[in-house]
Every structure is written in C-alpha cells, then in structure tokens.
Amino acid sequence: MTDQIKMAPCPFCEGPPCIIAYDFVTRDLVAIDRPQAEDFSEDYSAHVWCHDCGAQGPDIDTVGLSTFEQIFDLTVAEVMRIAVDRWNDRNAKARNCYDAGEAEGQNMFPRIAV
Predict the structure, then answer these.
(1) Which uninterrupted H or E stretch holds 20?
(2) Whole-model pTM above 0.85?
(3) Given a cut of 90, is residue 35 above it in pLDDT?
(4) Host domain of residue 46
(5) Residues 76, 48, 30, 23: is their CA dihedral positive or negative?
C-alpha cells in the first residue's frame, strides 16, 4: 500500500480532482488493485481530471515511462501515483515561458501585429 497524497484542486475552476486508469491498448478501465501480469506484459495509462470542468492532467502510461524515463515494471497503482504527482506539479512548470510572453505582449488576445 502506498502512502496517501492529497490531489490538488483544478487550476482552472478549483473543482475536485478524479483519477482514472485504463488498459493502454484496449482503453478498458482497470482497477487500482488489478494484479500485474507476471511478465509485466500489460501496459496501463492514467490521468487526473477535474470532475467539474473536465480539465485533464497529462496522460501517463507505462509505454512512455519505460521508453523515455527508463521506469519499468509498474503496477496500476504506481502509474496512477505518477499521474497524481504530475497533476499536483503542473502549475508552475511553464511559468517562465508565460512571463517571457508577457514581457513581449504575447499573452493578449487578439495579439497586435508588430
């Protein structure tokens, strides 16, 4: 059993977060306690989403984690945990890009041609 962590509210509407996991290939829903195949041949995806407005966090899957981050042999619960961690950490990652755009007037709609 993993330690509990609090999921942050939606950054757009402050709504309640929900988490879902599914089979990477069939897209069938899977339970958090689904046993992993002995050969770890099953792949899973998970994401957190806002129950109120539908905003969605990044889709985390075992294929991408193994290919790009060299994280292998994960259970459904572990993939869901990573999805929650990424949901909770998403707010400030690109703030420097926003601030740079602000300095150049690019955060306005419609943009004024320069």
Answers:
(1) strand 17-23
(2) no
(3) no
(4) 17-103
(5) negative
Residues 6+ apart with CB under 8 A from 66: 72
pLDDT on residue 90: 76
In a 13 Å sphere around the CA of 17, the CA atoms on its Cβ side amount to 20
Q: Which residues are registered as beta bridge partners of 48?
A: 19
Closest CA to 21 of 8, 34, 3, 9: 34
In a domain? residue 110:
no
Q: Count of domains in the chain?
A: 1
The whole-number pLDDT of residue 57 equals 93
Name the CA dihedral angle for 3, 88, 51, 1, rounded to a multiple of 10 degrees: -10
Instruction: Tell me how crowded residue 57 is: count the other CB atoms within 10 A of its CB.
Output: 24
71 inside domain: yes
CA dist 100 and 47 (Å) reads 29
Position 83: which residue type?
A
Q: Is 18 helix (H, G, I), strand (E, B) or coil?
A: strand
Token digits of residue 28: 């069938």
